[in-house]
Every structure is written in structure tokens, then in C-alpha cells.
Amino acid sequence: MRRWDRWLPQAVAALVTVAGLAPSLASTTAGDDAASAVPTSHYVVLSGDNEAADALGYQSGCTDGRVGRTGLRVLFFGTQEKDGRIRPPGTVVATPAIRVGPDWVAHAAAGWIRGFTQCGQANAVLALGVNNKSDGGADPATAGTAWARLVNQVGAAAPPSRVAVTGALDGEPSWSPASWATSWVKAYTSASNRLLYAANSADGCPTAGQAETCSNGWTVGDVYQVSTGAAPSVVALPQIYRTDGTQARQWGYISQWGVQHGGGPLRVVGALSQQAACRQQPGCARTDNSPDAARQQLSQALDNGPTTSHDTTLVSTDVDWLRPTDPR
């Protein structure tokens, strides 16, 4: 049985206990397929100066605060590049899209926290996320350390009774060599004891059998490492976008792999869905799982193996696109 008190050191578990908010963040209710029924995460479209970042963060945080749902939110800021700047989510290195510095991210996050706490009474765990795209030439150890320091900086200024700030990584095998992602996670966990939510995919990983290969030269062990194995402070928030349940079964297999190889099951806290984002963009055929379906599929997949049963209530968060022009 997987329990939080067995997964995490007491000091780390305390980080996500916000004003009586249990680490499981079990505030969502089953039976409602609407994305609005769960806390919303955001792909943040980067634009403008630090003042614009603060305003965008405040507007989004205020909207989320008014909804009044305690729970986990992730702000996905995109890709770190070799000069320390960050480019928007969903882009490649050749994009002409604006790049921003770490200060922009800090202003956006601080604005979100201020808006969330001023406009509502709920509590939150706010995870600040980047992805593992290595096409920008960033050194993974430098990038992971830099992100940990930024998370520590924002977290130190957050009101501890209302918002706990943590890190997040959108780690996808198709986006970098496994060594890049594992080095990034090692650097982050060495520089911060704040949780790292692994909002990862399992591209090409098996769902059954004895296979151990995934996409782009990754192995099941690599995905396990960046989702749980690297440190006790790493917890998994898998992407469960597909409506056919394939992604959930991949993660069930990875969890069983961890048990069979002595690392224990995945420390899964919940499921990430993208139904809201799919309503804002084309090209989401069969990858627009509802938050409730994503959580149910993942829970069932984790329970299928005799060694992977769990007694932790899985949470849900559904991601949308947050653009400067969005009427939030």
C-alpha cells in the first residue's frame, strides 16, 4: 500500500500541508466530467515586461481564487534555453516568439499568488513548471539548479498559510535524451527540498509484457527515475490525455516495473488532463480526456497489479492556455 507518510520525509511532507490542506489535496469530487469542476493549471504564453507578467498572473490567480477550489495548480512556462531565458510552451527553438528572463516568471507567479489570495479563500499548491526540451542548448544541470532557485525564491515570499510553492517538470521522452532529463531532475532536487511534480508523458513505453524501451532511446527505468526514483521529493502527476486509457496503462506498467526492480511503486499524486486546452485549439482528437476520466483510468491502471494497489486519493488538474488577451 502506498502512503504519503511512507513516501516522503516529514520535512518535505510538511511543505505541502497548507492550512490543514492534506498532501493528497483531495478536494475534487468524482462524477463531474467538466474541467471547471477541478483546479485549473495553465500553459502560460509569455509576453510583455515584468509589469505585464505581474498583471497576467494577478488576473489568472484572481479568477482561480474566485472559483474557490482548494487544490494543485501548475503554471507551465515553457523551455529553458542556454542564455538563461525561457521561451513559450508549445514552441521550438526556431520560433520568433518572445523570450523572457527568470524575473518575468517570478513576477507572473507572485502576481498569481496575490490574485489568488486576495480574490478567494481557498488554499493551493502552486507548482512552477518548465519542460525538458533540449533544443535550446541549455545545460541540464545549470537549468535544473536555476529553476530550483527560482522556485525557492517565489516560495519564500508566498503566504505559507495559503499557498505552498513547488516545482514541476513537463518531462517527455520525445523532447530530449534521457540523460538530459535525469541530470535536470538531479540538479533540481539537489538545490531545493520543495516537491517536484513530474507532469510527464511516457512516450512509446509499453503497457504490458516484459519490454523496457520507450521513445527516443528512453527506457522504462528512465521514465521511472524522473517521475519518482530520483529523490523522495519527486512525485508523479502523469499526463492522461488519451481517451482510450493507453497512457494510464503505461503508467501502471511503469509503477509495476518499479516494484519489480526494488524501487517501489510510483509516487503518483494525481492525473493531468488537457480538456480545457483542447477546447481552445484544434488537433485534440481522442486526447481530450475529461479530468474525471483521466483520474479514473489512472487509478484503475495502478490497481491492476497486485503490488501496485494504492490508498491515496488521486487528484485532478486540467490545463488550459493562458494568454495575455484572454478575458479572465
Question: What report would you give on this structure?
Answer:
The chain has ten helices and ten strands. The chain has 328 residues and is an alpha/beta fold. An eight-stranded parallel sheet has the order 8-7-6-5-2-1-10-9. A hairpin with a 5-residue loop joins strand 3 and strand 4. Helix 3 (50-67) runs parallel beside helix 4, helix 7 packs across helix 8 (246-260) and helix 8 (246-260) packs parallel to helix 10 (291-303).
| Range of helix content | 25-40%
Largest sheet: 8 strands, parallel
Query: Uncertain segments of ≥5 residues (pLDDT<50)?
Result: 1-35, 306-311
Distance between the termini: 41 Å
Sheet-strand content, in percent, reads: 5-15%
Count of DSSP strands:
10
Helices and strands in order, then pairings?
Blueprint: H1 4-7, H2 10-15, E1 40-44, H3 50-67, E2 71-76, E3 79-80, E4 86-87, H4 102-119, E5 124-131, H5 140-157, E6 163-170, H6 178-191, E7 196-198, H7 220-229, E8 234-236, H8 246-260, E9 270-273, H9 275-280, H10 291-303, E10 315-322
Parallel strand pairs: 1-2, 1-10, 2-5, 5-6, 6-7, 7-8, 9-10
Antiparallel strand pairs: 3-4
Helix pairs in contact: 3-4, 4-5, 5-6, 6-7, 7-8, 8-10
